[in-house]
């Protein structure tokens, strides 16, 4: 959806300066398909590819060689685990990389496919019971409209095994909703969907929810692409608090309404830090010549919780993207040892970046470019970081549908 926010792509990116590039390697070239991010389980990478032409996309596995993730790049092996058809209720167009559950089960969302309205699905892929056998797909839920449509990001697994996610459309007012899928009480039973929050008419509470993360005591944090109290409807960060009694209503609180320009717009990918703060990105972006427009070129932000319950969350822009510095941060953030890692896309390519906290209180965060992409290659989707600090990610390659999976060692 973010790609539709460009009103005009006029001009060039300008030079990006690398502060301390890591060791970069392409692990695998994906021909004829666009990867949409990665996840990892037991040292193996899993990813999804977008639909192209009559292909509804697939889920793939990248297996490292016997030497493990540090082995030479050219020795990684791809296996396609499942190819979606969009026929007879099957999913189509996976929205993001799948999420790993117990025993290697994969959970994912699709933008299309499913039931009669073709409004998207939540699906499960079960690994084979014997080596070399096929993976088994199950459609856990097909969206129909009142319960949401078009999930655009991955689900989040709660500690009790439920799946939480967002539907960017549908609901009572077609403003989107937050949903929960509970596993069956007995093996082989049906999963149960519950709409936890249905975004209301009027946009003040936000509209088009896109990303979720879990906080303490069952609290959910999320972002909406649109809405809020800004005149330009630049999006929100919200909190959903569980009901005081079972079966009651969840309570939404808007923690921040973005106003565009330096404040940013179109927030994504909230993550909760060890300090209890929420970190995320704003994508922007309107580009008209050399004018950044009211939506800006993207930021990384922090929201600090109030000292007292019911107080105001304090928003700080940690980094503001702009011409000559890359723009359009375009992946969920990774928080590690006080540093922040992510990717930024642009018409000229994009970059993998690291933000280091200031050395003195109140100082500026330091941005380091870990790798700069050129020649039409753009990072896209979720990054993965292993215990050694190596980053794994995927790129789309323009103009033809293809992409890569890469590794950056620290």
Compact summary:
With 410 residues, the chain is an all-beta fold. It is 0% helix and 44% strand. The chain has no helices and 30 strands.
Structural commentary:
The chain is mostly beta strands. Helix content is 0%, strand content 44%. The chain starts with 22 loop residues before the first strand and ends with a strand.
Number-wise, the strands total 30
The average pLDDT score comes to: 89
Tell me the major beta sheet. Answer: 5 strands, antiparallel
In percent, how helical is the residue content? under 10%
Topology:
Elements lengths: L22 E9 L3 E7 L2 E6 L8 E6 L13 E7 L7 E4 L4 E2 L5 E8 L7 E6 L9 E7 L13 E2 L5 E5 L9 E6 L9 E7 L8 E8 L5 E7 L9 E6 L9 E7 L9 E6 L5 E5 L16 E6 L9 E7 L13 E3 L2 E8 L2 E8 L9 E8 L3 E3 L4 E2 L5 E7 L4 E8 L1
Antiparallel strand pairs: 1-30, 2-3, 3-4, 4-5, 6-8, 7-8, 8-9, 9-10, 11-12, 12-13, 13-14, 15-16, 16-17, 17-18, 19-20, 20-21, 21-22, 23-24, 24-25, 25-26, 27-29, 28-29, 29-30
